[in-house]
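INFO  loader      accepted 1 record
INFO  loader      residues=240
INFO  predictor   begin
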Amino acid sequence: MMSEGLYAGKVVLVTGSRRGVGKAIAEHFLNNGADKVIGFARGAGSIDHPNYHHFEVDVGDTESVIKGFAALKQVTDSIQIVVNNAAVLTSQYSMIMPPAAAQAMVNVNLLGPFMVSREAAKMMRKRKWGRIINIGSMAASLEPIGDSMYAACKAGLSTLANVMAKEFATMNVTCNTLGINAIESDMLAQLPRDKIDAIIAGLPVPRMSKEDDILNVIDFFAAERSAQITAQTVFLGGVN
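INFO  predictor   done
INFO  writer      dumping tokens
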């Protein structure tokens, strides 16, 4: 039986779906009628739902992504919506940041979305419809001290979407980026709270993001009516 709801008939891929924002996004699609939600994460799945399919994939490893897509094709022959959410963060001054930590951020935060988007676009091409949504960060605009590589990767994520928007336009595939500010998560817990509070206090809307703030923009980007919304970055909280 075909499911009913906002995302009826849609197959969605969410990376970093095991916890935090990614898990909330995956559950949102499930709760709104998605036929299937595919989750990619390095660890085991944490969502129990008949329409959820989890694959242990390290998006920072190109071979792992390729194998992940081969595996997901055993449960679906199409993907309509992708949310590139998986990310890693090491916040440290540039002169003392371990090169391995910087490389990990490049691999997961930038190369990963590139690989996932391109493999998904190959599947979207058949139906000539798709929505690719990247989860960016206020760091791309605010450029905070200690986040040189993280901010650079998140800025690159918007550029990646903008170029792919041109490449995929003839397939009716849009590519956009949502720049969140701060939300309670394991990643946020790595950072000094006083530093985060000071940044939030300086925003036009001086509060942290809530899950619904994020889901609202995702619904906008993913909507059928958003066919002309592409190559855009929307920041939360008044960041620009």
